[in-house]
Every structure is written in structure tokens, then in C-alpha cells.
Amino acid sequence: MVLAIIGLLVIPSSGQPPVRRQAVATAQPSPSRAPSDDRPPGVVATPEFARQVKANEAGLVPVLMYHRILKKRHASIDRTPEQFMRELERLAKRGYAPITAREFVTGDIRVPAGRFPVVLTFDDGHESHFGLDASGNPRPDTAVGMILDVARRYPSFRPVATFWVNREPFGLRDKRQQAAAVRWLTDHGFEVANHTWSHPNLAAVPKKRVREQIVRLERLLRKLGAGPSTTMALPYGMLPRPKKLARGGTWDGTTYDFSGVFLAGAEPSVSPYAKKFDRGAIQRIQSNGKKGECRKWCSQFWLEWLDRHPGERYVSDGDPDRISVPRKLRGNIDPKRRGQVITY
Questions:
Q1: Model confidence over 58-91: pLDDT tens digits?
Q2: E-assigned strands of the chain?
Q3: What is the torsion angle, in degrees rounded to the nearest 10, for the CA atoms of residue 202, residue 206, residue 211 and residue 214?
């Protein structure tokens, strides 16, 4: 009962109706949470509870794509620290709760009832993403330092993200420093995964080289303590030919098998529970303003669009074991998961 009430207290206030006592009484603590898990405790949802929090776990999820965080932008995909912080704070204020790409593709979405999952992803393992200071703590001027700062000020904003790296993670060449960086991130709930060895266009190289590029990076990640990867991001968002090579294969005796492959993308992803979810080509949204091509394809546009169309957005029921949707959307859910579905 106490956990159910906590789940309701974290529902964002804007646009949400008051919750009746009857709905609170029907939600019970979920036993599925592991003791070491840093995520919020779940509840056992019911149709009435799902109705009260306006749950829609068939909705769209923003998977945000970041590259370098620089004081002076050198490319259109760069973000300044001020722009990055502004976007994080907006997400926190609007009721978004970060999850990793691994949690997203496996459907392990443990977000408080009434809130919205968001996946923060970073390509290339740039030094602006993460670094440790002399005391072994994250540098505050990096993406991780800023995520932690926002999480301290907004406790419901869980400080996690996914970093897809190449052969020199976070600009580090020393293997001990690489291992220390990866160890800190994975110990604190972040995901470090595969973005190929040297960032080639996989659509333009032979099949054998596609497999080599992925396996060489997998071997590095395993040595550093982060592998095997569950997810990977395609360099330039380009799929190899055939497409299935991105998800699984073997080179030089080493096999890889990813649960999700991410594009460079231009729109929110469908729910991982949806029939239309293609885990071999998952959409992302570039973090950017509303100029040029970004007028309709980048994060500012899409976050504003989701605010204006709340019925299209993924809204959590707070229950990691059930999938709550409005009755009219039941047919959108993958038939393999229909035993988990609650409708209202």
C-alpha cells in the first residue's frame, strides 16, 4: 500500500487528474524488483489504476541521440552544455524518467506510474561524455556530470544513459583508464555498448568487414568489463546489407547477438511491446532546435509535439510485469505479450 501511494505521488501534476482512493487501494507492491536494483519500486496495476494514471504502454518513446557536448559547436549535431542542461531540465520537469537502451529493447521498463520513459543515448564515446577527475569522480563538465546534477535537483530523474563507443572510449587510449571509466559507468547503472571499431558506413563495406568491425569492438568491451553488448548503434544510421548482419553474426570465432539496433533516426520509437516494433531498426531523435531540417525532425519539435498529443505518448502504469493500454489500442500489442495486457 505504501509503495502504491509513493507511485502516485510522483505523477506529474500538469494535465493529470486527481487520483481517487479507490485506485490507490487496488495497486499492490510488485515482488519482481531485484534487491540491488536502483529503479523505483513497482506496483501491481489494475484496470482502474491504469485508467487513473492514463497509462498507455503502446505509446511513443523518445530515444534522444547526442554527439559532442562543446562550448562552441563545430557541427550541427553538437550541443553546448547550456543547451544540453536545458533539455535535461525540461525532460525532468515534464515527467520523463530515463531508462537505458538495454532496458528499453528488452521491455524492462520500470518507470513510476504516470510518468514517461526517455532513453538518453550518446554516440562515439567522446571525451565530453564522461571522464573521471583526480579523485575518481565524474567530471562535472561532462554529460554524465550534468545528468547527475539534474538528478540531484530532480530526484525522480533517474541518472542513467547509454554510451555507444568506438575503439577509444571517451577519448582514452590507456587500457587501464578505459577500464576504470567503463567500470564506473556500469557500476552506476549506465550502459556502455557497441558502435563498431572504427565507425565505418556499414552499408558500404563487405559483409566480412561488417562482422569484423562489430566483433573487434565487442572483444574490447568484454575486456573492459562491459560486454557482451545487448544493443548497438549504427554509424551514420546506415544498415549493412543484408540488414540482419547488424543484429547477429560471427567473425574469427566470436559471435555477437544484439536485442536492439538503433538508427540515427528522426522520430520517436514505437513501444517495444508493439507489433510494429522493429528491433533491427529502432528510431531515434537527434537532439537539436527547430531550424532547417530540424523544424520537424529533432528533439525540440518532437518533445513539443508529444506535449500537445499526450494520447500518443508512452505513459507508464508503474507495473513492470503488466502492459496497460486503452482498450482501443489492445490490437497494437505484440500477440506474444497479450497475456500481460490490461485494458480500460
A1: 999 999 999 999 999 999 999 999 999 999 999 9
A2: 28-29, 43-44, 63-66, 96-99, 116-124, 162-165, 191-194, 231-233, 248-251, 254-257, 260-262, 285-286, 323-325, 341-343
A3: -30
Amino acid 205: pLDDT: 98
How is the chain split into domains, by residue range? 59-309
CA-nearest of 319, 294, 256, 310 to 33 is 319
Check pLDDT > 80 for residue 10.
no
State the pLDDT confidence band at 14, using cuts at 50, 70 and 90: very low
Q: Tell me the residue type at 63.
A: V
Can you name the CATH fold of 59-309? TIM Barrel (3.20.20)
Instruction: Please name which of 138, 221, 217 lies closest in space to residue 178, comparing C-alpha atoms.
Output: 221
pLDDT, averaged across the chain: 91
Average pLDDT over every residue of 120-139: 98
CA distances from 340 to 44, 228, 273 (A): 12, 29, 10
Q: Does 343 score more than 70 pLDDT?
A: yes
The CA-CA-CA angle for residues 197, 200, 204, to 5°, reads: 140
User: Residue 315 contacts by C-beta under 8 Å, 6 or more apart in sequence?
Assistant: 53, 54, 55, 56, 57, 59, 114, 115, 116
| Residue 52 CB-half CA count within 13 A | 23
Q: Classify burial at 252, counting beta carbons within 10 Å of its beta carbon; exposed 0-12, middle 13-18, buried 19 or more.
A: exposed
**Residue 219: all three cell numbers together:** 572483444
Q: CA-based diameter of the chain, in Å?
A: 61
Say which residues have a Cβ less than 8 Å from residue 264's Cβ, sequence separation at least 6.
65, 234, 236, 237, 284, 286
Q: Is the torsion defined by CA of 231, 234, 239, 245 positive or negative?
A: negative
Residue type, 254: T
